[in-house]
Amino acid sequence: xxxxxSVGLVLLMLTLQRGHLAxxxxxxxxxxxxxxxxxxxxxxxxxxxxxxxxxxxxxGQTYEKRNISLLKIGLSxxxxxxxxxxxxxxxxxxxxxPAFCQxxxxxxxxxxxxxxxxxxxxxxxxFYVTPVLNxxxxxxxxxxxxxxxxxKNRSPGTGNCTCYGTDLNRNFNSNWGTVGVxxxxxxxxxxxxxxxxxxxxxxxxxxxxxxxxDILAFFTIHSYSQLILLPYAHANISAxxxxxxxxxxxxxxxxxxxxxxxxxxxxxxxxxxxxxxRQIGIPLSFTFELRDKGDHAFLLPEDQIQPTCExxxxxxxxxxxxxxxxxxxxxxxxxxxxxxxxxxxxxxTTATVGRMGRTTVVMITTATVG
Amino acid sequence: xxxxxxxxxxxxxxxxGNSTLMPKIGTEPSVGSGQLQNSFLPGxxxxxxxxxxxxxxxxxxxxxxxxxxxxHYPARRAATVVQHYxxxxxxxxxRWVFLSTVHKGSAEDVTDIGRKYHLELTVQDxxxxxxxxxxxxxVFPEGAEQGAPQVNASCDELLQSNTTAQEEVFYQQxxxxxxxxxxxxxxxxxxxxxxxxxxxxxxxxxxSSFIMLRESNESTxxxxxxxxxxxxxxxxxxxxxxxxxxxxxxxxxxxxxxWKLLVTWSPAEGVKVLQTELQPKCHCExxxxxxx
Lengths: 370, 292
What we know:
Chain A: One of its GO terms (molecular function) is metallopeptidase activity. The structure holds two protein chains of two kinds. Chain A is α/β, with parallel strands linked by helices.
């Protein structure tokens, strides 16, 4: 009796030690799909559990007047911080994507205290993660089996067209209405009445515009196909840093393959939000299409959530590290080198250098500094 | 003072990870709308557009000719057609193949015939995970009434995988059964299905390949998204018979297309699709007061 009691007490203490009794620290929470109510509750919990690194922000409204929220994750700093943007579930039926955004948040919160690299990135960067962008569409896709394949948002058609929904990923102001769209409001790729006619696309646009100078990398997460896509979709145009995009993209594909052997192909291809991000100056902009390659398609089994998230995490981290290191390490090197050469110049001009004329020395040093 | 400065600099040089240093701002060239560099991306479809009210704005597809980039869309779309063809020829409740990789591809215009593709690809059986390399030639016929693409393909090893035993057991189990089998939503919304439903899922995928092959052109890429439902019908001529309702996903238009199929199968005869019926897209909408 006493033995059982003490065992129970030990168990209770172990559970409490993890913080509290919430299910979110359980591994199997992240191996299931969650509806919008659960995801909203989870966002609140992430903020409550990690008040020094997580804050939530409502940055827009859907057609049906629901909040569009993101989690901002990072260590507070007196310096101006750079940012990483990630949005999931711009298309309602791509259920694996909010699962990935949740996994990504959980993972960085789990390791930032012990993993030196992640810790450093949390100091220099803020991660802006939107688990569900198309809130109305996602809720609709959970209604019943017949709504499961919904893609668009839920704004009604206009004029004579009685169908619902605009394809949010065709509504951004990047060559709007040109490539791969339909002007029929009953179609899945209906681009809307005009660029940014949809409040969801507006929300992302305004937020990105306010932050664009600080965003190092932009990710928009989709399924399915196992692809890493980079700007641009429209013909005859490549991004000025196309080679870097390809190189970083291929590095991410390799990182993904190293996890579970899955092949993700890197392609310049369609996606207006990614194109828009690139056009406003965000250097690294990618669309990820997660598992699978077509056998389950949008209906990815829950036992594949974890491996999919693990490999996608590796891919995304490769790109984030690249963006971070390029922004922070190369600047450190440049500043240090400049200071060294300036110091050398100062030393040389003040020290006695024998028969070499001072003018000559100054010229040589100036050339080095310049 | 001077040497203290040197010392500090030494520390800074050694400790590159110091985050108190200010990051570079504007490391990449900013791209405003007037500054996009125009350069041709090899392998990208040249899509020019003429916008017409109510029509898909993707009208003039200037098709790639010559050597195709194996991992870009034009080659992948054509290779997917080969996948559909292989399933119609060799698919069964225990064999269902998917495109893995395109190794090589080229396309040419053939006068009075249409567009001809040569492809080297690898497909993988989703059940046994056996892979096989294939060579294929396909023609998308030209003309106003575009018929189905014509495919010639040969694969090594892959299609010799031994499914006979499993197929025989499955066939025997259902051919004389007094309990006609049926199922729906395979997989369900969460991607689940009962293990007993799996062969019927594969069979649905193979049967769908007949329509997908027939409906394909250079600008489409079809896949089966779900078996909405299926029902076993009375056996005829020693063939298992089923009525299937499948959902196809077309990648370019992103449409979900419903088809009803009358399907037969036996180990000896393979899969046959006797009838197909396109189902109208349901524009049924939930009333505005959706619960939050």
